Amino acid sequence: MPGLQSEKYGIVIKPNSNSAIDIALRVINILKKYNKEVLVEKESKENYNIIKDVGEFVIDHDPPEKIIVIGGDGTLLRAVMKEKTGNSIIMAIRAGKRGFLLDVEEYEVENRVYDFINNRYTLVEYPRLQLIFNGVNKDCALNDIVIFTSDGSLVRLEAYYNKDRVYNIDGDGVVISTTIGSTAYSLSAGGPIIDPRLNTIILTPLNPVQLHIRPVVFPINGVIDINIKEDSGEYYINIDGQEKVYSRSKSFLEVSLCDKPAKIARFRWWENYYERLFSRLLSYW
Questions:
Q1: Which of 62, 80, 262, 267 maximizes the CB count within 10 A of its CB?
Q2: Could you tell me where the beta strands, DSSP code E, fall in 42-181?
Q3: Of these residues, 22, 53, 60, 73, which one is catalytic?
């Protein structure tokens, strides 16, 4: 469309997915129709040699102001973690069976891309969790930070909130999750479902020996300290399923609010939240 100023849009695509690449090719054509410059993430472009005549970008170095993620929850989590600036606004299109965090369906792609171009969306800034492991800053987590046994041995740890002791845990480990992450690993481990309009941090034990221990929900603006004891077994720390840190020694973890929230463009996130929760997560297929 002549006369319109070109604007850069980045695309991130789930690898090895026929559905994702089909949607991506549609999105590329829609963006070109509206005179937008299309850039495909370097890794995504390498996964699909069918993508031609578009530029590329490296998401952790030069992300565009607007990014369209096509895939499942893991694709979105990876994109959010790699986007280091915290400035990009992300639109999320579901390509797959679950994809609970992605609210745009395949049948409405053209309308929602048009809305994204014209800023007709609700910008939701999701709090993330900053992990400091033995004094070293790690990537921020949108969903959760998991401490889990690596060899089946007992993980022994102490948990504190704002320096107040919460409890000791001897078991498989613990999940520290955000509100949006409450429907991920924490839920599978028996944690509560938190309404997405609340800002919380959830501590969910994993198979504790102490049967009286239960999940606890805290305000998200506090600090959780985890001291892993010297006689603990080997374990790993998993950040949003994207980054793993292995350890077998006494360690200290501090989890607090990340200074860069994830910016997600939502179109009708609240109106059918519980319907989607049941159909995608709580019902059996």
A1: 80
A2: 55-57, 66-71, 89-94, 122-126, 129-133, 136-137, 144-149, 155-161, 164-171, 173-178
A3: 73
